[in-house]
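REQUEST ID: PR-0412
SUBMITTED BY: lab tech R.K.
PRIORITY: routine
TASK: structure prediction, single protein chain
INPUT:
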Amino acid sequence: MKKQIETKTVSQKCPSEKKYFGLSIHNRKYRDAALMTFGARLFLCPSISSEHAKYFVERFEDGLLSLEHINKLTLGEVQNLIDHKDAIPRSMTEKMKDWFEAFGELTSDEYDYIEKHYGIQQNQLLAAFPKKCRFNSPKELFSAARQYIIGQDEALKKQAVVFYLQTICRDKNIDTIARSMLSIGPTGCGKSESYRRMGMICDLPVLIVNSNHFTALGWKGPNLSDIVLQFMKTHGYQPED
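STATUS: complete
OUTPUT:
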């Protein structure tokens, strides 16, 4: 009899722990839908760090914090995020990095939940999130660009070095331009297109500005930084980006 009980106990599998936006929440008072809302609102509130979230979960599990209180506490910031979903604030980007390090990436179901209930798509949330270079060297980047730009190998090799260095700066969150480059050639040889294509391959922003629109003989006016800033605003870029 004892042997049968022990065998049955060993053979039983423990149910897998369920998480809501990376948070392990144990509160039998609420159903899964309510716990998903709880996790989503903690995630979508930029000012709530991973440490704050753990604290809120503990109070929630102890019955010292209600779902209604969390909804009220996060209402303003979540609504602001919804209103600016086309240009996610930098504070939210920093918050997501902290959250992913503490709790892991969101699942596809969790991204779908956010889109369904808050109208924010996954690509909007991750648009400003730091990307990782998919190339291990300038040589790999050159090979990728060579598929699109023909007959400019020497120029592409030099561009590949500059663009590769810039992806490293981006990945390490270094706010600088890696190197400068001067390209000289006749109209139609592919100068602008090679830069544009390199930007697309590396997922880096490239702005093409025609200086003839701004300069003339004896012209005096705003400096180059002001010109570029105005150009960015005109074309819908955020200055902080």
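NOTES: The chain has three domains: 16-126, 130-206, 207-241.
REVIEWED BY: pending
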